[in-house]
Amino acid sequence: MMGYLLKRLAFMGVTVLAVCALTFFLMNIIPGGTAELILKHTVLELEEIPTDEQIAEISSRYNLHDPLYIQFGNWLAGALQGDLGSSYIQKKPVSYLLLLRLPATIQLAFAAMSIAVLIGVPLGIFCAIRENKFTDYILRIVTLMGVSMPGFWLALILILFFSVNLKLFPVAGYGELRYLVLPAVALSAHSLALTLRMVRTGMLEVMSQPYIAFAISKGLSPRHVIARHALKNALLPAITVLALSLGHMLGGAVVIESIFAWPGVGSLLVDAISGRDIPLVQGCVLTIVGVFVTINLLVDLTYTYLDPRIRYG
Amino acid sequence: MKCISISKSNPAIQGRIKWTPCHRIMANRTVAVCLVLLAAMVIIAILAPWIAPYEPNDINLKESLQSPSKEHWLGTDHLGRDIFSRLLYGATTSFAIAISVVAFALIWGIALGGIAGYFGGLSDDIISRVIDLFLSFPSMIFALAIVGALGSSVLNLIMALALVHWASYARLMRGQVLSAKSNDYVSSARVIGASDRRILVKHILPNALAPVIVLATLDMGHVILSAAALSFLGLGIPPSVPEWGSMLNAGKEFMRTAPYLTLFPGMAITLTVILFSLLGDGFQEILDPESEVSGLVAA
């Protein structure tokens, strides 16, 4: 177990490092552009063309003349000591900006995940019990819609319906609970649909097992059989899907956050990318990928508790 | 001899043998309907320049933000461009992107997965680690960074999406080849002196391909969604190219006065993705009823 854990941790480190390196080199593919862009976003107007002296000054201030591997090495050395550099455009430390934005994203992802689990699991069980009945059909169609609909389109429709027409929730913003409702619903739709689908298939599979037939023939109530015997085994595949969909959420959050002007890491990343603010992009990618691989590891580890048959060697 | 006579006398098996894949596809009603509808969409996408009533980028400020009418079936946007025509041209963009990305990911994934599974050893170790690496971070974030870095163009978008999509094919293919490799027909082929290349391409590949095709079908919808999301953010597709995601982005400014601008492109995306996922599920039922590929696409 200890060996497995160490191996996984090492691989996690490699993954995060590789993603950061790839992002860094890709962001720098267009040569010379960085200094010009920094100037355009800070000192000059967008249409103005910077002079050679200005470019030279910015380049030497941010060490942009160094070879890329040295720039990356410097960044990495800083990052290992907890210093992610400062944003070219916002002129603030990247770690400060991230800490400022991270709570909003965690709040949004947590809310969306809760919706997906609290609605998806019961509905999945319900569908499995009423297999091929009318409600099952309706819910399966809704599930198909949920998986196929772009999250940002659902977000726009929710705004159109609940904010513009019914005026129940604000169009965009951050703060009280009512600001959270629409973004969380829009973000959760995909995972909710997947959870429902997985729980339904899992339940149907488990319910055909001999030990369920045995439990029923023993005279246990259906409620007891479902809750005590079937659910635990049916949930395992659903947990995998939920963990994967958390990655999907972090990606989807980027779009949802920019629609609802939600001040999270996703919208920070989009702004950073459009401004080619490389240290900030690096910081955001590092955070998101880091969170994602950590959660994946935690999920794999919880398997051993949920299903004692699973052992990592 | 005995075996053959048994199978001949068994009507169930005999019935199944007569059915070619083509028959089985057309017998599955969902698959048949999806195939016909998707084929129609592809034809419309190809013929867009001839069918579309207006040029997709013709700006006509006098007719801006009109609701659906006889002249403009689905209305016009803020620049007076015809929504219906832009939707048709948008189909061309979306299908072109999805087909290129999936084709690239498929070829790359099959090649690498095949090599890793068949030869094993060091090549397997290296390729498997790279696959693990690519599957262990959120693909959308990476695609976003690539497109942001390389700039907006359809080609860059295709490259970015292909780069994050190939790994699931490679992993699936590797597993398929690994399990196909131990079959008797492979040893037989080797005994009669077939080369590795011939065994891999002529004997193993056709038997390993079914789940990969299912994954590719499901992935088509997935790619269309990712491409739309990226261009919705204004990354990936230049404004001059009509695309469903960027149409939604342009329409969201006018949601109060012209809600149809956000409704129609979204419907187009949803309908296309639904058709691809139904088709993928149907293919799975036909080709390979045992395995579950759908879960993979969730990643």
Strand content of chain B is under 5%
How many DSSP H or I helices of chain A?
12
The fold-level CATH name of chain B is MetI-like fold
Mean pLDDT of chain A: 84
Helix and strand pattern of chain A: HHHHHHHHHHHH
How far apart are the termini of chain A?
6 Å
Q: Shape of chain A, please?
A: flat
Whole-number average pLDDT of chain B? 82
Instruction: State the assembly state of the protein chains.
Output: heterodimer
What number of domains of chain B?
A: 1
Unreliable runs of chain B: 1-17, 293-299
Please describe the biggest sheet of chain A, giving its number of strands, its sense, and whether it closes into a barrel: none
Assign an overall shape of chain B.
elongated
Find the structural class of chain B using helix and strand composition.
mainly alpha
- Radius of gyration of chain B (CA) equals 23 Å
Give a short account of the largest sheet of chain B.
none
CATH architecture of chain B: Orthogonal Bundle
Low-confidence region ranges of chain A: none
Number of strands of chain A: 0
E-strand count of chain B: 0
What does this structure look like?
The complex is a heterodimer of chains A (313) and B (299). With 313 residues, chain A is mainly alpha-helical. Chain A contains 12 helices and no strands. The N and C termini of chain A lie close together (6 Å). Helix content of chain A is 77%, strand content 0%. Chain B is elongated and about 75 Å long. The chains are: A mainly alpha (313), B mainly alpha (299). The interface between A and B is large, with 58 and 45 residues.
How is this structure best summarized?
By secondary structure, chain A is mainly alpha-helical. Chain A has helices at residues 2-27, 33-41, 52-61, 68-80, 94-129, 134-148, 151-165, 177-207, 210-217, 222-259, 265-274, 278-306.
List keywords for this structure.
heterodimer; A: 313 residues; mainly alpha; 77% helix; B: 299 residues; MetI-like fold; 14 helices; elongated; disordered C terminus
